[in-house]
Amino acid sequence: QLEEEKSFIGCKTKTRDGYNCKIYCNMGSPEDVQQVLNNDGEGIGLFRTEFLYMNRQTPPTEEEQYNIYSNVGKKLKGKEVIIRTLDVGGDKKIEYINIEDELNPFLGNRAIRYCLQEEKLLLTQLRAILRASKECNIKIMFPMITAFEEIIEAKKLLEKAKKKLIEEEKSFNKNIKVGIMIETPAAVFNSAEFAKEVDFFSIGTNDLTQYTCAVDRMNTKVSYLYSPYNPAVIKSIKMVVENAHGEGIEVSICGETASEELLLPLWISLGIDELSVIPRNVLGIRKHINSISRNETLINEAIKCKSGDEMIKFLKNKSVI
Ligand code: PEP
Ligand code: MG
């Protein structure tokens, strides 16, 4: 890592005109925590819990999960940890989770859809997360939401888990914050309504790009069409941020685009509250953000671009000035 970047350890992430944007980290394996701390991540914006379920024969027990979540939370010493419930299916296969072969796995039984059908699996996870929230700063996030009812059902299950824990006299944070990932065009267009039901949004631009451009994110034959610079993706993100802030909730980006230097001026100008990136990108992004200012008109100019290529050219020109 560049020595120069290391000098940004302990600094705030703040544009020249004084706008604070938090730089959080994505993590899969609990071992990634050390990297988060070494790189001065301001929190964990996406804990991909599916890795706890992989390379084994049965799902992790409540106790195993509780220990992992609370250890991660304790190491973060009061900083926020956003735990995403199991995002299985699509590109993420788990041997003992028998999702039948599907013609279109990315459009099939995955993530929150599967978990709402397997109530016990999700309840166990929610209990573990809740119990860990008693001593750590933990939030819960549900993936791949498309329909309003999924939010209601997931929240109902969370209430059920809370009620049971109260009966068992187990403590947890009763005001734990609940958010959803915005990863589908349906979630984008429903975001005004969804924002009334949850405490925060996190935009998963990997899937949002896949579903908006109708391009399988793993298929190299059509990857030339997979672009977060496609104006449709940028317009979607604009809509989500406006709808979130209209309801007074925070919105972050946790897909790969959170690390794209060319897009950073757009994210801060839009007023993204938090970017969640791989640990080794934290300091470089902080350095970059601390060197630029917000430009309120940038987004409206950007969405006039006709294509992804035009968007890239436009943003390159802007970053020179
Ligand atoms: C995303 O879709 O952008 C995201 C962050 O989730 P994942 O990459 O785990 O699907
Ligand atoms: Mg995703």
Automatic annotation (TrEMBL):
User: Where does the chain bind phosphoenolpyruvate?
Assistant: 48, 84, 206-207, 217
Chain sites annotated for binding Mg(2+):
183, 207
Could you list the residue ranges forming a coiled coil in this record? 148-175
Its Enzyme Commission number? 2.7.3.9
| One annotated GO biological process | phosphoenolpyruvate-dependent sugar phosphotransferase system
Q: Which UniProt keywords apply?
A: Coiled coil, Cytoplasm, Kinase, Magnesium, Metal-binding, Phosphotransferase system, Sugar transport, Transferase, Transport
Report the protein name in the record. Answer: Phosphoenolpyruvate-protein phosphotransferase
Q: Which class of enzymes does this protein belong to?
A: transferase
Q: Where is the PEP-utilising enzyme C-terminal domain?
A: 7-292
Entire protein: shown range: 247 to 567 of 567
Q: According to its UniProt record, where is this protein located? A: Cytoplasm
Superkingdom of origin organism: Bacteria
Question: What's the stated role of this polypeptide?
Answer: General (non sugar-specific) component of the phosphoenolpyruvate-dependent sugar phosphotransferase system (sugar PTS). This major carbohydrate active-transport system catalyzes the phosphorylation of incoming sugar substrates concomitantly with their translocation across the cell membrane. Enzyme I transfers the phosphoryl group from phosphoenolpyruvate (PEP) to the phosphoryl carrier protein (HPr).
Annotated Gene Ontology cellular component terms? cytoplasm
Annotated family: Belongs to the PEP-utilizing enzyme family.
Active site, renumbered: 254 (proton donor)
Cofactor or coenzyme needed: Mg(2+)
Record flagged with keyword Ribonucleoprotein: no
* Catalytic reaction annotation: L-histidyl-[protein] + phosphoenolpyruvate = N(pros)-phospho-L-histidyl-[protein] + pyruvate
Q: Which GO terms describe its molecular function?
A: kinase activity; metal ion binding; phosphoenolpyruvate-protein phosphotransferase activity
